[in-house]
Amino acid sequence: MTTTTILLIVLSLVIAGSLSFYQYLYKAKNKSKVSLFLAFLRFLSIFGILLLLINPIITKNTLETVKTPLSIVVDNSSSISFLNAKEKALELYKKLILNSALQDKFDVLSYQFDGEFQQSELFDFKGTQTNLDAVAKNLKSINKNIFFPTVIITDGNQTSGSDYVYGFDAANKVYPLIVGDTTTFLDFKINQLNVNKYAFHKNKFPVEAFLHYSGTKNSTADFIISQGNSVISKQCISFSPSKKTAIINVLLPANKVGLQVFKATISSKENEKNTYNNTKNFAVEVIDQKTNIAIVSAINHPDIGALKHAIETNAQRKVTLIKPNDIKLLQDYTILILYQPTAEFKSVFDTTKLAGINTFIITGNNTDFNFLNQQQNNLSFKMSGQKEDYLAEFNSQFNLFAIDNIGFENFPPLQNIFGNVTTNGNVSVLLSSKIRNVDTNAPLLAFTENQGKRTAYFLGENSWKWRLQSHIDKQSFEKFDVFIDKIIQFLASNNSKKSLVVEHESFYNSGEAIEISAQYFNKNYEFDEKASLTIAATDTKTKQTKNYDLLKSNNSYKVNLDGLTAGNYDFSVKELNSKTTYSSHFEILDFDIEKQFVNPDVKKLTQLATQTEGKAYFPDQIDVLIKSLLDNEEYKAVQKNNVTKTPLIDWVWLLVLIFIFLSTEWFVRKYNGLL
What is the pTM for the complete model shown? Predict the structure, then answer.
């Protein structure tokens, strides 16, 4: 307390004493015990009230012992069970968590991980994915600015996430406890299959297989691709202790339209401990036509290359680059992308109007806006000769098709001629423009549909920078490429508007997220946020049906169909109020990534331990690990002085005491006839 506060408290004592003396003792003829008691009560009451008015701050110091956190992390994935290490992992965990010496020195914390990371003391070893990188990220977040050790009980076989070796903080030691049989067994394995999701009818599609061999002698195996009972391809591959891998490339014919399921198998006459990893199923959807797109431009620009790459990531699209005067057979193209049109595009516009071809118009600094005003009436341009940078703002109410905000507001600005852009008629705006932080109320990306002909307008050049920024943000071009593909998909379809639009894949791998999204529109084709959507998925073999509700997410409804096993499924999405339905099917391919391993990944876990200056241990070295943790002088408990400052006015009991003193004084005076 400050000197001023102390002086005020002393003054309060004097005032309280003086008032109680004056009221009960100064003129009293008979200073009885009752008068003295009443004076004392009055003194306490007045002093308490004055204390509340002064409101001194009471400071309290407490010493707290802070132990170093020790994270015990258990791999809860099914690969632990598959490697017959479940019991050993539980035994090691209990030995660590129940060790009294470790509990005295450390703040022992228990976690588990599979596809996700969470705090837990119970483990079922049924996780369908292993993500060790999630352990690194979460422990960094939980223990910020703390020096701590981590013990991970795992086989080290990661199936999802980034490389975990460099994900952990190098300043915090990691001690992997490696479970699973490290004996080298003879094993043939299909490490990876690369195949496109789509192929074109009467063409051939490539399949790339990465094969792996574990063994100590020369051996051969057959790599077979089959469909049903028919063998499509068969090759004999030789392996040796010095040649443990092989890359096989096969071209398969796409003779049937629709979803085609194949099985890749590597087999030999040798006895293997694990044959589950000898087989992988894959599927290809064979389509009988391709969307041909022409990018028409009189200039060269990085945007054109970025658009071509983005569009052709979808195997159903083929892009051709042509000059405005080179177009002969427009009917060969489904969509025309008109990049920065000028008067040279006159014949192109005339032909597209007659043929009813959907167009994607992109403007920029070289665009002739007077010419563009003459060729269309959806947007009206009143432009100056000055260049300007335009930022994007996402319209969450856009409802022509389902699309997510991929971070448009954070993308670099597009460049266009400065001016006033107004919309005419029914124009749907996905992105509006801003100049720095000022809204222009003008479209940046807009869509129209008139008499079955669809047009998209993208008002700005340098969209290649958007694709690059998307890769920087997401470490992948996928988000931007999907955004462009949604635009192309809208332009490629001339179907009439449907009230219920459902998006799904034709096939999924078991163990991965099976997500289906839907949009429901009212009679005005406005997104209905009050729709009630359900989905029923029926196994075509067992006839068992599972029902789920779709949950609203931004401008769509989504559901994750957890718990479905491998097989073929018919499903229907239904809007309960209008009884509108959508029906289709998908297939879940039988593939358990957690059963692909026969040994723990000792090499990688040892590398992780070395990277963090820790050490890898095996189950029979658990006592050595415990001793190492206990003897390590880097992990010491720290005493922390906690200072708590509490204003006296927060002390409720003082108010209660003042009330008791005043009440007691009143009752004593009443009892003695002094009122």
Answer: 0.54
